[in-house]
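Quick one, probably user error.
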């Protein structure tokens, strides 16, 4: 392109701004553009001029398929994965999240520290020993027998012995471990409470109070 021709570089600047310049002329034009400040101003002026025409075009968001077509032209067609392959990562992530959440809750990591009342129940001769543990959150007293048992045809019975008042039967300890749900009025005063284990007839103490067959005792304390 010759500056002395009509239009010359200015016509080239317009073609370059519109992207209409032949490919074989672009390299030569750009090398001249670097060296010619006037030519740079011409390109900028034409670009600004042509941009004015777009002000008359209302804005419109193109549909998503337009972007996919452009990407296909630029990067080549991409084979679409089956639906199950598209959904699989989300399903795996959901399963992993559920498993992790269950593990955290089951381990008690998110539970605040809460007081636990426990007692070692035993007799002087050590023939019968039991562990008692009360969960303040659930209101459940767990009694586990470590050694010993009741005689044939008889049963161990657990009692709450208040400092003042009548003894209260809590449960018959027929198995190695017994869970006892305590009523709210009992739960309020359990700290330091005295527990007794007596040996009774198969149906429990007939008089509603521990018999003389006392087998073990202990006090609930915070640990």
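Nope, works fine. Designed sequence:
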């Amino acid at each position: 392109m010759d500056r002395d021709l009509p239009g010359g570089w200015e016509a080239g600047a317009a073609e370059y701004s519109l992207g209409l310049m032949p490919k074989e002329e672009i390299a030569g034009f750009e090398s001249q553009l670097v060296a010619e400040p006037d030519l740079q101003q011409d390109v900028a002026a034409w670009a600004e001029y042509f941009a004015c025409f777009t002000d008359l075009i209302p804005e419109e968001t193109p549909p998503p398929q337009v972007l996919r077509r452009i990407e296909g032209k630029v990067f080549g067609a991409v084979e679409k994965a089956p639906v199950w392959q598209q959904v699989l990562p989300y399903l795996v992530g959901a399963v992993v999240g559920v498993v992790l959440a269950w593990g955290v809750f089951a381990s008690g990591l998110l539970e605040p520290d809460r007081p636990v009342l426990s007692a070692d129940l035993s007799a002087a001769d050590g023939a019968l020993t039991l562990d008692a543990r009360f969960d303040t959150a659930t209101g459940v007293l767990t009694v586990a027998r470590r050694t010993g048992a009741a005689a044939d045809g008889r049963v161990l019975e657990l009692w709450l012995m208040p400092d003042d008042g009548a003894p209260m039967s809590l449960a018959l300890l027929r198995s190695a471990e017994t869970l006892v749900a305590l009523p709210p009025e009992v739960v309020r005063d359990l700290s330091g409470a005295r527990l007794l284990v007596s040996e009774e007839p198969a149906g429990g103490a007939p008089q509603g109070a521990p018999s003389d067959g006392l087998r073990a005792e202990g006090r609930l304390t915070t640990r």
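The chain has six helices and nine strands.
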